[in-house]
User: Fold this.
Amino acid sequence: MAPSGTVADPPQCSTTDSFNSSDTAENDIRPFFVLHKASSGNHNGKLTGIVKSKRRIESPSPKIAKRSEVESVEEEDGQFFSTLRFKVFETVWSKIEKTIEDVLRNSNSKVFSGIHDWIRESFESIISSGALKLSEAVRSYPVLTQASSKQLLTAMVLTRNLEMVDDLLTFEELELHLKSQGCHVAKLSSMDFSAKSGVGGCLRGLLRQFVMPTVDVADVTILASWYRENKNHENPVVIIVDDTERCCGPVLSDLILILSEWAIKVPIFLIMGVSTAHDAPRKILSVNALQRLCATRFTLSSPAERMDAVLKAVFLKPCSGFTVSHKVALFMRSYFLCQDGTLTSFVRTLKIACLQHFSLEPLSIMLEHFCHDGVNQLSGEGTELLTEATMKHAFDLPSVTRNKITRSTFEMLPHFLLDLQRMPNPWSIVVLCLYEAGKFDKLRLLDIFCEILDPEARYLKYFSPSEIVNSQSHNSGRNNVIRRVLRKLRDLSPSQLSSMLKSWENLTAEFTEINDKVIELHPFMRAVEAAGQRQGLPNSPKKHASRSNSKLEKELKAMTDKVATVIEFMLREYMKPVESVPFHEILCFKNVDKLQSALLGDPRGRIQLDLLESHDILHCVCCSQRGTTLLPSMHDTSILYKLAQEHADVINLHDWYQSFKTILIPRSSKAKQKSKSSSKSKKRKEICEEPEAPAEALIQARFCRAVMELQITGLIRMPSKRRPDFVQRVAFGS
Amino acid sequence: MPPKEESSKVTRRSTRSSASVTVENSEPIESHTPTIDDLTFGEESITIDAVLSNFPGRRSQIFDFIRLMGPLDCPTLPIMIYGGASTGKTSVVLQVLRHLNRPFVYSSCRTCYNPRILFESILNQSLLHRKCSLNGYSSAKRCDKPSDFVNLLREALSSVIKTLESTSETSRSDKPDEKPMGKMVYLILDNVDLIRDWDKGTIILQFLFSLYTVLKMPQLGIILISGLPPDVYYSNMGYTDPIPLYFPEYSEEDLRQIFLRNQPNRKLYSAFLDVVLKPFCRVTRRVEELSTTFSLLFRKFCEPLDDLGISPNEDMKRRLYSHLKPLIAHCLNEIFRVSSHPHDGETRGERRQKASYSSENREELEILDFHMSTSAKFLLLSAFLASRNPATLDASMFDSTGGMDNRKRKRKASEKSMEKKEIAEQEAVMKGPGSFPLERLLAIFQCIASVGDSSFGEEDEEEENTTGYDKENNNLMSDILLQVSSLCDANFLIKSGSCPLEGSIRYRSMVSEDLAQKVAKSLSFPLSKYLYRR
Assistant:
């Protein structure tokens, strides 16, 4: 993961005869200027370099002096940019991270406010039903009132994700939110509900958070007494259990039964985080405890919804300028869907991609100016960093060479960078319009984002007339996003079309070209609505009750065709993939292989292959001579694993050890050679070459170490109590 | 547990005896210092008729209890009050003591969940001690051994009895109107059946049952309230048997009287009870449960009405009944109900969507409503198949081409073998899902994940990106043991014992077939092809 300290030097520029004398003079002046700039940074070594270069200029061989100057300049640029790139990375990533945190906080704020409103409403109704006197509140026997129901007010917060990683932060923020509103909040996790410590463990956890950290005995009466002191009774008591399904069921049931006994004296609100379904406590709790819960459901946004919000904030709205290529986006989507499905891992993936981008691409320092959105800074200060070496590198980028841009137009570089900076604006507007259209089919922004990044723009073929006709019969079209949007358009009702056009108009308000196209659709929309009103059934265009209904169908079909035309216009004109723009390598990360190796590592089968074919990796001399024969010079783990292939799933340890011992002792090879009756000269040669036989204890030690390594790797399982002579081979993923 | 009854708020009169008690620590004025009066119920005494009217159906139990308590200052034997849950045991005891105005100490073995907390709770009340911030929320005396408890309790009770005697003499001369408290102190232990589940619970139970014999204090009366009958606590130790007093379940007429109390419109509620009381009494007779359900149903019952004060006629009764009828069967079977809060944004969105997509209502019900990663889904299906299918069929079921379609034909089964199959099928249903080792789960996962990869491969081939196929395959297999751990945390997999031969852990799938179908549908996986049907 650590980036290489030295950056590969860009290819040297060969001096050609095309330079005239005046150009040569200008070229000589520029390096002095750069050297002077670098020396102002308190680099003592550079002063010596300057002196040396001056001497070389005075030397009688001017060509050699020029080359040395160019080399020193290039080395200097590499070192300088390497330091600067990490500063820019920290700037860019901190902005991305803050954006993500703000988005995640806002996505849950509505649910948090709903929970707090529910708590306050219920708390007010409890208080209004009769306030208890102090002596009544702290007594040990139950209060006999009309509303003496022992129901415990409970909020079931549905996280809708199997993994708990994202939700730990969510419940911490819920705790802070409720505390800021004045509630007394305690948070318990599933580790507090262990069968060993029983109900006393979680009560002690509660009292430590509410009353004081050193409570001798965990007693509920302490909570009741504390609640009546120092105006504590003016606010409700909230207990958050963030991962309910992982708790020990009997202990949680006992806690609920105890708290419900005291629910009148201490208004307690229970918040339980549930990941699968809101009736999941039915499996965990006892019947008595379930009857004590007066449950209300709250639903958090799903991981897919939060993913869409994060994507919109980081990649579609002006954030940092950093973006990823089509392949990288596909990999990140696959990692989110196929692995653990948590937003935490997605953010980690994004950070690794960003870090690798800054460590590999020298020109990524330009992102600092993109980050600040300073156009003037780009044209002024930014160009000072563009030395001749970086100019060479910029014009050697693949996107530049493909577009046949030559060095003669290097004065145009600020112009290209300005276009590169401004490009995301119409692009993101079109993406958001597609997202609005795709919402009717529950399309996710992640899928849309991955498809439209395609550098070959394959989605444009769906707008051809033949494709539209054939789209009905394609079964595999389900997985294609743009095609689904177009097919869904035909099923929309007039009211849905109208709402979509309104949202499109809002999105494109700042972009006149697209907004005019959307506004042109208004007369057709009004015609459709008029036809619908005449029919009297605006939401059911499919019925064939009369001729006016067929007229409505015609109007609707014409309308959807025009909407599809607008979509095609938006895609063709403004949906240019970032990878088709010159100089996009400055802000776009493309190396998907590095990202994959950083995240996934090698699959489990790779371990087995490496052990079986160690020669292919080591390329040692001894193994190549003998072919596939086992040799004592091989690694012990490889020897043992190859021997294990001869056994079934269950390996006898004694047999395994004997085979291992046979490999290590060279006496057996002597006997084999003798039995073959080879020549005397071969005998002498082998006697001299073979090392001494290792001791029995050493063989056993090496055997035990190798077996232990195989166990740690997960390839075998150690003997069980009933069969101490055998180990079992774990064979999967091969 | 207790039936509903109103509690009148009365300012407690301060007596001269409370002023005479010396306070060791000076506390703030707001806080309350426990006095000897706190041992009584603390409110104005009620008449016997009030007690009887508060508890319909408990007349004989109340009179028996008062008779067992005996007249003022009369020693009494230990009493055990037992019966099912929510039959009024605790409430009757407390109200009778309120009627008699006698001092008592109450501790529940649910709140006091271990011996130390129980002992210290009793001692704190006897010593008029309350845990607060001034004393660091600590008990008056530390006590976690039965022998210490006997000595400390004897000292505390002796002190209380002396105070009661002096108070009794003073109140006779000054306030002849007030009911005397007497010199008896009653120790009430509630939920004593929970002690059996404690650590060393048997020893504690024997100790509590012999407490009367050990203490030998005639001024102490012991009342045990239990959910189980006295036969459960029988042991060989010799102690005084408590006098049993049984609280049977309420009859239907008793329940009617209980629920009709304190209703603003008795006629309307009586019509409601005519509809709901009979079917619900077959399910449960617990007042606590019925009260919760009835309050929900009554609101539904009254929805068509504008005025809640009217007397319904027959036609109106029929209309209200038809309005309520669809809910009754639903509530009869449901134990745990989760209501929706109006602030839940997701519910609003879902409702709006359902309104606009009426044709897709069924699809929404079938959609998996929480997020799982793809590998976790395949693993869940693997666990489901491993639990349902016999292990011997894995080789034929999960070969390279996959599925049951490979079978050319089945043998025609005779009636005898079909009968045997039906018997075996019923036995399998009774046993529930089977257990499987981890290796079998991972082998099945590898097979069906490769089937799933081929569908991914189709998508990638369409996009002319063949490298994606290999990467997808690698993606599904990594961190597979972490996915197993996640499924265990979510209670989709549970560990069920160990294999008797090899000692390894075996797993069991707790996934319902509906959930498995949902997961398979989200993956486009042909689950029915791999599921063995007997």
Chain B touches chain A through 98 residues (CB under 8 Å). Chain B has three domains: 36-168+178-246, 252-334, 371-399+429-452+472-533. The longest helix of chain B spans residues 146-174. Strands of chain B lie at 79-83, 104-108, 185-190, 220-226, 243-247, 338-340, 435-437, 493-498, 505-509.
